[in-house]
Design a protein that fits this description.
Helix content is about 50%, strand content about 5%. By secondary structure, the chain is mainly alpha-helical. The protein folds into 2 domains: about 210 residues, Serine Threonine Protein Phosphatase 5, Tetratricopeptide repeat, CATH 1.25.40.10; about 120 residues, Collagenase (Catalytic Domain), CATH 3.40.390. The protein has a 5-stranded mixed sheet. Strand 1, helix 3 and strand 2 form a beta-alpha-beta unit. It is globular, with a radius of gyration of 22 Å. The two termini are about 15 Å apart.
Length: about 450
């Protein structure tokens, strides 16, 4: 079971195809003509449901600190209308997603932002380049944003210079976003959301946030109601360029009371900061360069630190999630225990249902491999609506494929085929290339014990 689970789960958490020497015994062939790619309509956005006291603390830590821990001395933002252009190897789906994002920023965060033609002067340039080209300069980056620049060619000259140091800014005039041009639509869209939001405002990520893309756990893939509130607050008229943390802090209460009145009626206790030793342990656990043993030890250290600090919620769940993934192929029982513990941590708050849906994928792999079709169906049913509501097509398609395979095991062949066919439209958006869709089908089919 260790080998089966390690093979399958290594793919269920990524979008890259996995080469195989021979097809699995239960391989499912793609139809000769795939159904059209399915795309999401306007999202159902849940407003921030935390106290304004907590949100104010999060806001200050997001804006006045880098991910490295370095302090940002003063607030910097764009002034006046914010223009965005897209250049490079773009496509229709990318442009649709960019326009939808800009529309949301206007309507939900009340930003004065618009897209202009590729040849017009602009504040923010989004350039699509091949992944290999991008990673030749920044090997570990899926996508990124830098200040003061307008193109990839400028970045190649200015990288590793103070010109692209965010802490030296006194105001924002230009920023360049690099996204990969040769990945699946969802990965491209996720980059647009995260990097455009960072270009506009927050430079930091906080592991303690349960409902934000500004969290290095990468659970949320599109901007949330909380994120829109943060951006709307950042561009409130009471806040100006060059303000210090203290100057912004004394204005936050009034701004948040106006933008988020429900937060005035909610009481909460601000959470303590995430310690650097916990962050470093998680970075080691997630880094491909370290040995498997060292990565498992680092994840276990993060779990122990979190328990010592009394943390619950996203940090506790993510450390267990990472530890479970690292135990796959090494100790299946320990991996499953870690996933079950992560599910409990994420189950403490309804705002973390999308986190629980990610864990359901891991748990479903174990139940499917053990021949338990009913438990598999129960696990994935709880996550499919959540995945669709959060516009995560890769997760949604994966859950649907699990359920289709479980239905096959139960003998409900017609229902299984219908659901599997429906999953392919979402899979085309979530995974992109047909071979990635086929690889996901094969990996899940390989889990069937009979």
């Amino acid at each position: 079971m260790n080998q089966i689970v390690a093979c399958a789960l290594g793919f269920t958490v990524s979008c890259a195809p996995v080469p195989q020497d021979a097809p699995p015994s239960h391989a499912v062939a793609l139809t000769s003509v795939l159904p059209p790619m399915r795309v999401f309509e306007k999202p159902v956005v849940t407003p921030a449901r935390r106290s304004n006291t907590e949100i104010a603390q999060d806001f200050l830590n997001l804006l006045f600190r880098m991910e490295s821990g370095r302090a940002v001395p003063q607030l910097t933002r764009f002034e006046g209308p914010i223009t965005v252009r897209a250049t490079g190897q773009t496509n229709l789906t990318m442009m649709r997603d960019l326009d939808a994002l800009i529309g949301r920023l206007r309507s939900e965060a009340n930003l004065n932002i618009m897209r202009v033609a590729a040849d017009e002067p602009t504040a923010i340039t989004v350039q699509a380049v091949p992944r290999a080209t991008m990673q030749s300069a920044v090997p570990r980056a899926a996508c990124f944003v830098v200040p003061r620049l307008t193109s990839w060619d400028e970045f190649k000259i200015a990288r590793r210079t103070p010109q692209v140091d965010w802490t030296t800014l006194t105001r924002c005039d230009r920023a360049a976003i690099s996204v990969p041009s040769d990945v699946g639509p969802q990965e491209n869209r996720d980059c647009l959301h995260e990097e455009l939001a960072q270009a506009l405002g927050p430079l930091n990520d906080l592991y303690r946030l349960p409902n934000s893309v500004f969290n290095d756990d990468n659970i949320h893939t599109v901007l949330t109601g909380f994120d829109m509130l943060v951006l709307g607050t950042f561009y409130a008229p009471e806040i100006q360029n060059s303000m210090t943390r203290g100057e912004v802090a004394i204005r936050l209460s009034q701004i948040l009371a106006r933008l988020n009145p429900v937060g005035q009626q909610t009481y909460g206790r601000p959470q303590n900061d995430t310690s650097r030793d916990w962050i470093e342990a998680m970075e080691t656990a997630l880094a491909n360069g370290a040995s498997p043993l060292r990565r498992r030890q680092a994840a276990l250290r993060a779990i122990s630190l979190g328990q010592a600090f009394g943390w619950t919620g996203p940090r506790a769940g993510f450390a267990q999630y990472a530890y479970g993934r690292l135990q796959m192929g090494n100790d299946a029982s320990t991996a499953l225990t870690a996933f079950n513990t992560a599910r409990k941590a994420y189950g403490q708050d309804s705002s973390m249902r999308i986190h629980a849906a990610h864990i359901a994928v891991q748990q479903a792999a174990f139940s499917l491999a053990s021949g338990d079709a009913e438990t598999t169906i129960k696990l994935v049913d709880a996550g499919m609506d959540v995945a669709e509501r959060h516009q995560n097509a890769a997760l949604l398609a994966t859950l649907m494929m699990f359920k289709a395979t479980a239905l096959d095991m139960r003998g409900d062949t017609a229902q299984a085929e219908s659901l599997r066919l429906d999953s392919l439209g979402w899979a085309r958006y979530g995974f992109g290339y047909d071979q990635n869709v086929q690889a996901r089908l094969d990996e899940i089919a390989a889990l069937r014990p009979f």
